[in-house]
Amino acid sequence: METKNLKIELLSLGARVSGLDKGRKAGAGPAAGGMFLFGNTVANVPTQSWFVSTSPYSVETESENGDGRYIIKRNGERIAEVRFPSAKFQELKTREGIPYHKIALLHGADCLATTTIQTCVYWNTPKRCKFCAIELSLKSGATIARKRPDDLAEVAIAAKKLDHVTHVTLTTGTTATPDKGINYLAESARAIKEATGLPIHAQFEPPKELSKIDALYDSVDTVGIHVESFDREVLKEVALCKAEIPFQHYIDAWKRSVDIFGDCQVSSYVIAGLGESNESIIEGSKLLAELGVYPFIVPLRPIPGSMLEKEKPPSPDRMYYIYEEVAEIMHDEGMSWRKNKAGCVRCRACSALPDFE
Ligand code: SF4
């Protein structure tokens, strides 16, 4: 099976990794998934959602004593060898005793990722994004509410040294302040940049006053401003806070960001499987690509505990069609994940669009 086909199958169907403690721990990552390295790619594969139990995919060890190689199997048949990225830095603690893994995690093969502010102004309101789980990991004690810039710098130094991390993703819950969390992202990015020089990606909701984005200019290399869906009715249903922002405001925020950070350095998550049509995703992605914005198309990830936990991701066939169509658009517009300096687009574990380019 071609690597890109296997990746979309795994992203949509998930894989059972029961009994593979080593693989599971090493691959622990965002949104109840595991980081799988296979072929020439990396995938953030659902391993804990309900539908995983019906997936034809499983991971097993090849040797009898369990210390051998890991193999992805489809209905018991050997498909590919898989590795799990190691994250030695995640075993350390700060001087105050905060475990590094509560401050930041390894995402994909070589990206250090964290949510700088783990609370969101919309969480306890009807405006909350139904696919989001930002405060769940806080409640479970897996992370801390606010990561101190000094601690982030310390963790980044260790991640670079011990695990060869090459870039950083910073996201944030939306704050009640007009900057929407951008100022704290800038402060955090500055500390990491000064300590490590690593390229940094920051994600945020577009602020009303777009000049607030300029605060990231000297510390951040790429940004993500996520529209999630181009179907405004769908958005109203699943992410009211985002639906209340006029689409034109997203366009203006993307344009301003492309002016600041450059072509292919701005991205937007586009979630497939929220009830939208293929055309909405393809047309919307075309618009993004024409602006120089990378459409980071992902299948819906029904995170356990989130309001969409009982949903199912779209089928691999549907994702295949969308990725093929959009990859052609990317080609025509001269867009590529390879040009992107940091963050989700460079990591590519959650989307197979880069694999279709
Ligand atoms: S694509 Fe983004 S969210 Fe997904 S694993 Fe990579 S850095 Fe994390």
Keywords:
single chain; 7-stranded mixed sheet; 357 residues; TIM Barrel; 3-stranded antiparallel sheet; 17% strand; 12 helices; 12 strands; binds iron/sulfur cluster; 2 domains; alpha/beta
Structural features, described:
- The protein has about 350 residues and is α/β, with parallel strands linked by helices.
- The chain folds into two domains: about 5-80, no CATH class; about 90-355, TIM Barrel (Alpha-Beta Barrel), CATH 3.20.20.
- It is built from twelve helices and twelve strands.
- The strands form three sheets. Strands 6-7-8-9-10-11-12 form a seven-stranded mixed beta sheet.
- Strand 6 and strand 7 form a beta hairpin.
- It starts with a helix and ends with a helix.
- Mean pLDDT is about 95; it is low at about 20-30.
Query: Which homologous superfamily in CATH is the superfamily of the largest domain?
Result: Aldolase class I
Bound molecules: iron/sulfur cluster
Shape: globular
Percent range of helical residues: 25-40%
In CATH, what is the class of the largest domain? Alpha Beta
The CATH topology of the largest domain is given as: TIM Barrel
Order of helices and strands: HHEEEEEEEHHEHEEHHHEHEHHH
Flag low-confidence runs.
Answer: 22-31
